[in-house]
Amino acid sequence: MKIIDGLVFHEGKGFVKDTLYTEGGRFALSSSEDTILDAESCYVIPGLIDIHFHGCVGHDFSDASSEGLAAIAEYQLSQGVTSICPASMTLSPQMLRDICGCGRDYSQRTPSGGSRLVGINLEGPFISNAKRGAQNPDFIRQADFALLKELQECAGGLVKLVTLAPETEGARDFIRQVKDSWLRDISISLGHTQSDYETAIQAFASGANHVTHLFNAMPGFTHRAPGVIGAAFDTPGCFAEIICDGIHIAPSAIRAAFAMFGKERIVLISDSMRATGLSDGRYTLGGLQVQVSGRHATLEDGTLAGSVTNLLDCLRCAVSMGISLEDAVQCASLNPARSIGIDGTFGSLEPGKTADFLLLDKELHLVGIYKDGMKC
């Protein structure tokens, strides 16, 4: 395929009027295929990658349902998210085994009608009860290397992220065990934590390299107690997730986070739950009751319980808050790919990478979705 006259996203250059080629489902330097795609007046961007969300259209990854996961993947693809790394919740070991096995089975079938499953995000159970947010306290447990090993085996190697509260018992030993083992490629993400700066910086020095939904479920960033946020800022290469749904974080804090971490380290996530794509009402998340009203999803005590916003809408929201489109695109495609180690294949429009791309008009409406070089 030859893609002509589009404003093509290039890392470090922004949008350039350029010609793209695909060959055999990958971006290429040229193409023997006859198809020409006229992208005039459109932005051409990589397919989006959501590395932290729970569900949508009535389904949750933690349901461990193959039919549900297929429905989730179908919706995500319809919204421009071509690759997904869905998140579990704080649940029993057996439920987590079932979830990981479901993800493994789905990835082996490689269905063509939905987003590609590129990983599994274990958001729990190794978290702080004090900062559990919408996680179920009945299943919180201390960091357990043997359990993580078992879950990775169940997942067939798909686990890419695990959330950890570094102040909890055994956390530092857990990090060292992971980084000294065949599990070393799993990113350890600090989150659902009440850690202070010193404890967090030690965890990063030991091998943690990621932060679960920055600002949310952690102490605030203050001038005498910078906490996890300050420790992440002081750790080169540490990625920081941001939920940019217009609810979880104020616009000024979004702009401040981009100023602190730069476009290279922010990862936009949706953190969406099963009500995404549906109407207001009562839903569940990790076995807990959630009330959805407009863009708010809350537990009965008012605690925010994930979002009801997909990643493309989060990208649009970031732009509406003053983040440049090129920065928002990088943070929703290339950065998430880098953060879970799949950027050699996904996340940008470079020759040799999988030909997942989107066409957006000037108002950022979705005009076209292409996965493996094929229109969806």
Overview of this structure, please?
The structure is a single chain. The protein is an alpha/beta fold and 376 residues long. The protein has 10 helices and 22 strands. Helix 2 packs parallel to helix 3 and helix 5 (197-206) crosses helix 6 (227-233). The protein is globular and about 60 Å long.
Task: Explain briefly what this protein structure is.
The chain has 376 residues and is an alpha/beta fold. The chain has ten helices and 22 strands.
Structural class: alpha/beta
The biggest sheet amounts to:
8 strands, mixed
Query: Per the principal axes of the C-alpha atoms, what is the gross shape?
Result: globular
How is the quaternary structure best described?
Answer: single chain
Number of helices: 10
> In percent, how much strand structure appears in the residues?
15-25%
Helicity level: 25-40%
Number of DSSP-assigned strands: 22
Average pLDDT, rounded to a whole number, is: 94
Radius of gyration: 20 Å
Gap from first CA to last CA: 15 Å
Model regions low in confidence, pLDDT < 50 over at least 5 residues: none
